[in-house]
Protein 1
Amino acid sequence: MRKFTCLLIVFLSGFFGAYAQSFSVSGLVSDENNMPLLGVNVIVKGESRGTTTDFDGNYTIENVSPGDILQFSYVGFEAQEITVNDQRTINVVLQTDSEALEEVVVIGYGTQQRKDVTGAVSVVDNQTLDELQPIKVEQALQGTAAGVNVTPQSGAPGADININIRGIASNSVNGPLVLIDGYQGDLNTLNPNDIQSISILKDAQAAIYGVAGANGVVLVTTKTGKKNTAPKVTYQTYYGIQEASREIPVLNATEYALLLNESYANGGQQIPYPNVSGLGEGTDFQSAVFKQAPISNHNLSLTGGGERVTYSVGGSNLDQEGIVGGDKSGFKRNTARVSLGVDINDYFDVQLNATYTNIARKSINENGLGSVLFNALNFAPTFGVNDQDLAGRLGNEIINPLSQIENTYNDYNLDKLNGNFSLDFTPIEELVFTSRIGYNLSKSDSKTFNPEIGADVYGPGKVFNNPRSTVNQNRINDNSYTYDLFGTYEDRYNEDHHVTFTGGMTVIRQWGDGLYATGYDVPNNSYEFADISLTTGTNDGLNNSSYVYDIRKLSFFGRLQYDFKGKYLVSGMLRRDASTRFNPDNRVGYFPSATAGWIISEENWFDSDTFNFLKLRGSYGILGNDEAGGAEFYRSALTGEATYVLNGQLVNGTAPGRIANPDSGWEEAEKINIGLDLRLLQNKIDITADIFREERKDLLVAGIPVSGIFGGAAPGAGAPTINAGTTRNQGAEFAINYKENFSDDVRLNVSYNFTYLENEVTEVNGTDFLPGGAFGVGQPQPARMEEGFPIGYFYGYKTDGIFQNQSEVDAHPAQNALGAPAQPGDIRYVDINGDGVINTDDRTNIGDPIPDFTMGLNLNFTVKNFDFTAYTYASLGNEMVRNYERNQPNVNRHAYYLERWRGEGTSNEVPRLTTAATSNGVFSDFYVEDASYVRIQNAQIGYSLPADFLDRVGIDKLRVYVAGNNLYTFTDYKGFDPSASTGEAIGGGIDYGFYPVPRTYMFGVNLNF
């Protein structure tokens, strides 16, 4: 009996022991806001066994034993490990990984985990914005997102910034569609501190926004509060000093006089400066114009949330003065923002966002012939700071730049209210309906006062002389709303099939009006009285003008996303758009696209300790564009001018403006993309690579010549807009990020990206080419859009050094047709067509303003409480036209003329100086320079006070930092700023004396409590 009892005890012990070592564990996985998480990976550490959470965040895992470690991992959240004892239920709350917020990607009418994204998407998060502290949002995209090229139109406060995604495809509008929390908005009016993340859709993924997605889409998500969090106050401020990042070396007074004497002597004229010994350095008008200028920024916000309510409110103030113009140049931006989310009940959620922006800007003449910097470069250094060219020696376009600033009065003010209101209805867990309306309401006014200026101020014959004082004023109203109504159904079947369907409609209306007027004879010739209501004079011409527009669009869209076992991903989209810009017969466009992905690392046969994630993806789609300027293309508005004979009297009136074209239709962009996403070494290395191609067809082109019988040359009129061109952009992108936490105190993050781009115009209909830009005075337009060449390429003469002697001149084809017979010391031009004479037929491609490569290299390094960041950017392979030098005998010159030709063998690059006629001033590659550059955009050192100290004073975070923006630019370009562009597709790379982006030194404080 004893033996039996012992055996029974041993048997039962083994039985219950076996039972105790093998049981199932279940539970709920949620985020810090108690929201269940779908698709969380739950595995037994060291084994391949595991499962994923269902739609409600629930999981069950079988055959778990005490001592096993369960790993919970989800993209965008910090992984957790929990050791199992004898518990059968384990609920887990995953914490958001602040360094992986970019893993959740906004893709249009929804979000997607980055691992499931099948399109080409770049993300810039709020951490990057905090580190760069950009004045404008657009600046944060340069060098941080592959395929995105950002160029400033000017470094002046408040100046516009161009964004091009994967090249320039259209001859008209190339900027992307910008959506802020779902509504069409403007980055220029946003406070960067209000932004949570920016997603950039670059390929067919943007087809969900078919109506205007051809140029890419920028999706901005602003900050909101979080549920069940205490109120959090954030204050950010910085103060900085700006200075000119570069000055162009020009001749001082002695050098100027010596070279001018040489020029006069070579021209057979009496030298103007017989004695140069007392001239010295003279006046440096660049230094006189450039001043150090302050910039300051303050941002205050309050965020938090309860069980059903989240909130975020804030305000900001930015005050930036210009480095040129003193109190005549500046930019002030004030914003106030509120974001409120309310869960009304289990079925209805409400979200409200509203932003008010006020902008006040003063500006000077920034770029172009006659700008302040143009005059600073060309005004002779022998003049004193307050001297004027009263003898008219410098020609009629050059005046004292300081006097020009003194007599400049330009004011601009903008008030804008924008935001959205959305209502989500969730009848069942798998289905959400969203009704959302976004709005933009803006009013602006500007005033320009031109005082009466006689010849005794600037000098006789100057184009700046003004016989009558005038004031130009305008008031503009621009409004829009976007209404979206769509539903999203998401469900998982048999744990293997994950389906998401999104379908709905969008209504867009853009409307507004503008009024322009001029008043003459301002009382007291003073800005204080510069208002049209006070002017006393009249004018025989048209003194006012106005416009009105109303554009409407209606769209229907659908998208189906499917993945099988989380490794085979497909998505199909179709959008139907209608735009009132086109004739009713051509109004509707259909824009389909498809994307697919294969997560190779999810395959059972994929087993690698090195490769943690590997995905192959591709996309194809057709996207549309109707943004080519003008409200309507198919009919004319009465915006032209005409003179009529009524009752025997001449009467000024209106006439049709731009010629109508009822046959105009949509631009279409056919986009193809193949990409690879790869993560290595425990996700420390993240790689993304893409190759892409875009064919832009049926370009909406304005300016194709038409017969004069149609009246296209009449005042206020113009050629019709027609579908008349095709372009191609193709290239590759690569981005790599390395992140290493050496310890809790030492962390490193390095990222690098580059983009390679080829651009070509493949077709232009109705004409051989479209010209653009300007060079010098009276010369043909130097840029072209022409089949077989990059859009906006430079068309001129190719050079082959300098003639060294008369025998070289005699042996070379004659250059008389260019303006004068060649002599030793003149530029030698290439006979392109080999006909033995140099003339207009020898012009050719001499440069391309579009860079071949753009790159970004960014570093973030943290040691205990100290942090260091550096952002650099490079643009390689682009050329720029040097057009800031006036071709007049007495103006100042660039210092490279110190290396001019003075006799045989002295120079083979810079021509001789002479007052006699030469052909050296025609547009050639002598004026086209390599504008490649590498720029240190930002470097910052910060220190965060220790947490134990801050806890005692009730502060969550206090960080102080010093930073430098636009610290240095490495380039061979001779001008002020190789990064600038006017933004024009044809002629954008011509430098008329670009106002340089300033170098800024800042001290800042970030405070959270």
Protein 2
Amino acid sequence: MTEESTDPQGIPEPEGTSHTIDTDYEIGQDNVTASIGPFGLDFHNPVFVISGLSVVAFVFFALALPEVAESIFGALRPWLTSNFAWFFLSAGNIFVLFCLFLIVSPYGSVRLGGSEATPDYSYMGWFAMLFAAGMGIGLMFYGVSEPMSHFSASLAGVTEEGGVRTDWAPLGAAAGDQAAALELGMAATLYHWGLHPWGMYAVVALALALFSYNKGLPLTIRSAFYPIFGERVWGWWGHVIDVLAVFATLFGLATSLGYGATQANAGLNMLFGLPMGTTTEVILITAITAVALVSVVRGLDGGVKVLSELNMGLAFLLLLFVLIVGPTAAIISIFGSSIVAYIGDLPALSMPFGREDTNYMHGWTAFYWAWWISWSPFVGMFIARVSRGRTVREFIICVLLIPSFVCVLWFSVFGGTALTQFTEQGITAASEAPLELKLFEMLAELPLAWFTSLIGIILVIVFFVTSSDSGSLVIDTITAGGKIDAPMPQRVFWCCFEGAVAIALLVGGGLASLQAMVISTGLPFTIVLLLMCWAILKGLAAERRVL
């Protein structure tokens, strides 16, 4: 092929040599089209129907019977983490090892989009978008709180009751040793934000890019399983995969929205005296979802793109401000020592069996891995869309390393500042504050505290909006059978119910219920990702044969 062409759904056809898949399936062939007044509908049957009705039923159940929901969700998380933490950790290790294998294997030379495809974006533009993918409500919520939590737990040392550890410290803790506790706390944090989550995202992104740009299949999760199921992937096997992807993405986003509302509430309470509690958080989620709806209606270029650029600029300025006015020398030192500690402790932190630090393993790592996996369709589709023209090798290297580097920098600046305030200045406010207030307590010790705290709240809210908007686009694409131009009302529906699910979970048990649902949906989708690794190998092997 000498010239690039594009299919009706906006996906470029392969350029040069590529092993395309010959299938009779056409995008939208199973869709139901209808009109309700001025609004059009074009959704996949039965994926949209099953997903939509299930979500509506879940929201009504959690709101109508909050005490029952709280009881169920409260028991669900500890049961899942205590029984399946080993599975989450093992799967996370497989994803990282799989990505490292692709880097050094002959498959790394395969180019996404065909042998003659050229990148759609320059390195700088591509890196900027990978940086954007690595930023979110999670970094705002945990940027200070997680390093401080692991540091405090490690410094306090190991406690036991009946021969079982009851502390939350990672590994063997570092009782009474501030320097060792700082390094262990940072290593335990970076383990959750470094190679492992980005390995999960890379698997989904590579599968979507390979089977869409090289094989000519729709940009949906089910397309990656064509090498395993063949034409059956367009039937119930594919329906189940796509429904799982919708549930995982929806509850993963709802968890992030819940955290964002909690942190925004805490910051507004600190600055303006806004009442704390579930009622205020529900009002915040409702108001911010309404803003997200405006962004949805304006579209990608007029809505989420503008907000994303605004947020990236604000986030960079806040990071630069803390780096300059904070303990700059200590931050630089922590940045270097954290990388060394992360690499040194990685084998022990990623060991799925024979662990004594079960609270850390179950309460932190298992939850995180389920959360990242539930976000993988959302982030993976974003990365796939901007990575056409890259070889598999440069794709994996950059997707693993660039965002991981950004996360190391972020935690070193924000977490390192709070840790230095404690260890060198004796300031305990951030250490003693609840998770959602730790960022604001750290900023309170720096110049322009009121203004920077307000910037922090704005960042949380705008991340909320962009996550909701982008997430509704991904879910809508999946439930529209791969169409990227489905009618606007469907995207509005998913945007509204993302907020509704977050509200229902907060009412039915708070953050614990959010975490319970993200683990319960992340568990089956972990199996989907493991199968996806095998499908990627089969797809890359076919590409190599035609080169």
Protein 3
Amino acid sequence: MKNENIKIIALGGVGEIGKNMYVTEVDGDIFVVDAGLMFPEDEMLGIDIVIPDFSYLTSNSERVKAILLTHGHEDHIGALTYVLRKINVPVYGTKLTIALAKEKMKEQEFSGAVDFHEINADTVLNFDSVSVSFFKTNHSIPDSVGISINTSEGAIVHTGDFKFDQAAGPLYKPEIGKMAAIGEKGVLCLLSDSTEAERPGYTPSESTVVAELSNVFYNAQGRIIAACFASDLNRIQHLFDSAAANGRKVAVAGKSLKRVFDIALQLGYIQVEEDMIISVNDLENYKDSQVVILTTGNQGEPIEALQKMAKQVHPQVNIHAGDTVLFAASPLKGSEVFIYKTMDMLYRAGANVVSSKKSVQVSSHGSQEELKFMINLMNPKFFIPVHGEYKMLKAHKKLAQSCGISEENIFIPDRGDVIDISGGKLKSTEKVQAGNTLIDGIGVGDVGNIVLRDRRLLSQDGVLIVVVTLNKADRKIAAGPEIISRGFVYVRESEKLMVDSTTLVKEIVEKNTIKESFDWNSLKQDIRDSLSQYLYEKTKRRPMIMPIIMEVK
């Protein structure tokens, strides 16, 4: 059967780090690759997580045939629950990926039935319009795969997250031969991981981390506290190996880490002697030189937990003099200031800090030479860089051009761009709705730009609440005005400002109530405008002003 109509849409994961969700549409059938979340940026005040706006999928739910997962990191599976609440669709992933997705659903209190299908690298799925095959990739979590959606025009290949580590162990070995075979057969379009597209050369091998960790463990006198991402199973394995080689026991702190660790241990993705693991509560029964504490934060984010330990407010473990703190996680892009601040706090608490200056962390994404290697293995006709900020996508485009792909066959997508592949050309003519859906508590998408703007205003100059009670019959002030300040000025030190503001409000109310056509809304707006102008003149601040007008008979 000849495929007539092929479209590709990125609903997330382009122009940003995280929130990966890519749609491949073949003759009307929709295949979704990954459904990830992103942790909020600094300006998203109070937001817990961010997921893609997938309204395009809900409005075309009868055409969605499958969700295909590349691996078990939260930026690839964290939004699955929210998608499955709206769309009933089969989900395909490897053993570990499915186990982690099920655990994530429990955590997010999803009660519905899900049609999960476990696949491996040799599985071939046959649908009406396409067949789907898989190949193993090398990443920081086992069971990572790339996905090949095979059409009559050639394969559409999603690499997922990958690097090429020549010293990778059996669980992490990539199937380079299979990738080359897919390339030989013919790749129509390659969508490739751009995270480290700006970094020249090769990403260092995990074997360099093993050597450096052994060195740190050997030289540490007191306790070792190692911070890592909950789902970075490769690094967790190295930490256990180094602990075993140096006669130390390991205590696992942090719910998300414990959960992921237990699943990986149960499924055989981590090899650890049982007597090596101790409870955090048993730490006092061992000498400091006999223990390693493995930690991560609530969302699998380790830096937050270290800050609590440094401030002596962590529920389980606090830093004391002589501890060695090991940053065994590659820092998230944009979190560098937060990390340096945390290091400073750890030093103040008496710890010795080992960080990225030593090679105890390497990226789990391929650098420029590895990205070129993937392009050459696949030899695609068209190329779409994904999974990265715009500057990374742009750098990846340059790499593809250096590998011989012509500029007109490369497209840097924006969220929602519909990329049409037809008549031997790649073009984008339309856009579908795409963007951020903000999750705050149990609210999904109920916090938008207006609420965020209000939160930002409150965080900048605070709020003034103006309360006035009016007598309805004679239109006179019955009580007030009373002005309450929160986050604007300290009232005791600004008495004159408050008295003058109260007088101003009183004058505005009296001026408005003598009018024939008395209007509540215009009174409130008048209070806001006049008080805002007066306060700005006096303080050069613009607090949010909330007038509350009450009536008594």
Protein 4
Amino acid sequence: MNTTTLISFLFFTGMVAFLTWWKTRGSDVDTDEGYFLAGRSLTGVFIAGSLLLTNLSTEQLVGLNADSFRDGLSVMCWEVVAGISLVILALVFLPRYLKSGIATIPQFLEERYGRSVRALTAGIFIVAYMLILLPFVLFLGANGLNSMLSLNVKFGVTDYQMIWMLLVFIATLGGAYAIFGGLRAIAVSDTFNGAGLLVGGLMITYFSLQVVAGDDGGISGALQKIDAADPDAFRSLGADNESTHWPTLFTGVLLLNFFYWTTNQQIIQRTFGAKNLAEGQKGVLLAAFFKILAPLILVLPGIAAAYLVVTANDQQMIDAVGTNSDGDWNSSQAYGALVARVLPEWLLGFFAAVVIGSILSTFNSVLNSAATLFSLDVYKQYIRPDATTKQVRFSGQVCSFVVAIFAVIAAPLVFYGRDGVFSFFQGLNGVYFIPLASVILLGLFHKTADGRSAMAALIVGLVLMVIGTFFGGGEDGWLEATFVNGFHYMGAVFAFLIVMQLVMVAMGIRRDSPYEQRDAKLVDLTPWKPAPYVGGVLVLLCLGVYAFFAI
């Protein structure tokens, strides 16, 4: 890392830290609501920024571009379909959440089903964040930074050793935001880092297409070259040999997107901190618009990298990407290699700071969510019901520290040396997404289902998803032979769990009286009047993008 790169890295990182301190000085972090929900003071811009950057991290920058390197535009489903899910969050789910005045999803489930369901779901979220989500974010962040800046070469260590060093550095820096600053510091820093990520990501796309075009005429020339070399690269509907074959849009892909954006604590916690319903809806719908455009920075660079490696035989890219033990291109190295190939030296430090900011955003947001879940759903409910506000907050800080340690240890053990990591990660997410989604969905829209059917669905669902995910037999196993694609298996399990709960209700396992949601009266529930119209336009935009690239 030369002097210019180092200076630009330190400047941007320091500027974000200073602006975050300036915007949050004097904020209330001494109460539960102030620490975990930013004092219910977040406006639409900060909600949108925090939603986007909590999601737009290295699992997308590195992971999704790695999948587009292999499969082309079809992997955009993880971004574009999210736009529809966010519209549903804004119009359907958010009014219900804010009406209950909840801080966590398990808190809502206690109100709906009882304490046992709250305890189990809180435990599921915390374990999943610790062993699946955080390790994935940390690993791809460390791996991406290493390949962008060739840090292992500069420091004279192995690739594996460098990843460990970066894991510890990122976890230490990110933990400081989450443990000491609370949700408001996270939301504000997310917004500043998000602006940098959008600018930096678009720069990578632009420079990549310029390299592809060469002397043959700008961006349009680059797109024509790629399309001529691989007509499938720009098709929105995945072929049967791709991880997101088009029928999966209606099964696992749809369900994973739906759960992630409407009921996942890590994501929607920032909407719980909304100043009022109108601001929450503005922020969510603004985030939906940017998610629809996200393939420009999360998919297109991977397609350009594939062209440079496979068609253009760009030797610098070929050497940097390399092959795995099966002789296939090591797609997880593609994005970092592309950044090092196309970005001018003086911008590398800025982009490295942006990447670290995106990693920290997701990392500290998940830590804050884990702390919220543990403090409010476990510690205050079961360990120390009479705890003071200070003790509750301290328990969350301890939880954040423990979760961070386990995540650092798990990151290389789970993901190192694995190709196609984004699809693998989504498969792991399904283990807990699918059971929780079935219970939450029925709880919101069925008034008589009770805690017994919910507990049964959670336990049976977890068992079925673990069997399918870890004992499916791989590409030639029983799961692929029966369901063609693991995402179809998720859809089948989800449908089974919904039917199972309805059957239990029909058999008399139900509430004595229909559930009626209470109004906590904590925020103004007046909706943003244009929200339904804006949401409708965004849904049409999603469908239009798919239709345009379908042929």
